[in-house]
Amino acid sequence: MEKEVDGILVAAHELKAPLAVLRQLALSFDDISGQNEQIRSRMVSVSERAIKQVNDLVKIRRLEDGLFAMEPVAVREVCDAVTRELEYLFHYNKRDLYIRYSNRSRLVTANRDLLYSVVYNFLLNAMHYSGDETRAELMVKDFKDKVKIVVRDYGPALPMDVWREIKRGWVEKPTSIAMRPGSSGLGLYIASRFSRYMNANVGAVRHRDGTSFYVDLPISKQASLF
Amino acid sequence: MIFVVDDDEVMAECVALATKKETKIFSDAYAAMAEIADGNLPEMIFLDILLTGPDGFTFLNELVSYTDTAKIPVVIISSLDLGGRDFSIYGVVGVLSKDTMKPKDVRRYVEQYAK
């Protein structure tokens, strides 16, 4: 119960942040003349991210009902769709995103919506933790009988306890705010829950200069049409 | 020059706009400290507490460790409930809540501390 309350508090804090930004943007209309379109775009972008996060939290609740069908999913197509959605955000935050696909197996067994959220949350986390002059990397490669999606950042090292939880393959709750300033780790929590539902292994590798998060997805036996 | 230290870049830009003065935005405490170490002392600083890397309190500790930087007025901008706590020993002249602050609140501090 205590853990659940902690999780709710952290999620509430994370969801409050975009609301505070939206409010400030709305108040900024008076200070900027001729840049209304720019402010409008930012408001749309901030709201869409917040809506996505709320939707993901709702999906977590629905996981128990088993409503998310597992099916063959074209992994590169999902990654392309996510990077297209986040392109503006990376550009706006002056971050580079390097993409490399080397996987021969194009189809994995997953749920497209959940996989989309996993990649989205990994990339958003990487963008947040990358510095202005560093880049985030998205790599998709074959790994034994699986396809591995790796998102690498060059930000501060992941706290040991968060890393241990991810290494165990399971983030029990969003990380305490004080431990992970700027981001509660809600995205990682969401990614972890969705990966577990899809029977995918989720993990992290600590580097001297950053962290790689990965998810290993089973290759679909269905013949690929892509 | 006013420094705004906040890893939420949109929020930082809103605060910078509200100052109506020349500002420099930093997304982490390291970068702001490096700028100050280069001899570029700001007239005042708007500082978020929950930052990526060293947090706002670590930054404040650094500032008060040196006689020249200890005098820089700092206004905390945070979504944390800091409950009217007194941070004046860190050179903090005010605390603004991100939930309720308005551009005029930012300007009020600017008019007082960055003439």
Task: Provide a concise account of the structure shown.
The complex is a heterodimer of chains A (226) and B (115). Chain A is 49% helix and 21% strand.
Architecture blueprint of SSEs:
The complex is a heterodimer of chains A (226) and B (115).
Chain A: H1 2-28, H2 36-63, E1 71-74, H3 75-92, E2 96-101, E3 107-110, H4 112-129, E4 135-143, E5 146-153, H5 160-167, H6 186-197, E6 201-207, E7 210-218
Parallel strand pairs in A: 2-4
Antiparallel strand pairs in A: 1-3, 4-5, 5-7, 6-7
Helix pairs in contact in A: 1-2, 2-6, 3-4, 4-6
Chain B: E1 2-5, H1 9-19, E2 23-26, H2 29-37, E3 44-47, H3 56-64, H4 67-70, E4 74-78, E5 92-97, H5 103-113
Parallel strand pairs in B: 1-2, 1-3, 3-4, 4-5
Describe the protein's architecture and organization.
The complex is a heterodimer of chains A (226) and B (115). With 226 residues, chain A is α+β, with helices and mostly antiparallel strands. Chain A has six helices and seven strands. Chain A has helices at 2-28, 36-63, 75-92, 112-129, 160-167, 186-197; strands at 71-74, 96-101, 107-110, 135-143, 146-153, 201-207, 210-218. In chain A, the strands form two sheets. In chain A, strands 2-4-5-7-6 form a five-stranded mixed beta sheet. The radius of gyration of chain A is 18 Å and the shape is globular. The termini of chain A are far apart. Mean pLDDT of chain A is 81; it is low at 176-182. Chain B is an alpha/beta fold and 115 residues long. Chain B has a single domain (2-113), classed as Rossmann fold (3-Layer(aba) Sandwich), CATH 3.40.50. Helix content of chain B is 38%, strand content 20%. Chain B is built from five helices and five strands, in the order E-H-E-H-E-H-H-E-E-H. In chain B, strands 2-1-3-4-5 form a five-stranded parallel beta sheet. In chain B, helix 1 (9-19) links the parallel strand 1 (2-5) and strand 2. Chain B is globular. The termini of chain B are close together. The model of chain B has no long low-confidence stretch (mean pLDDT 91).
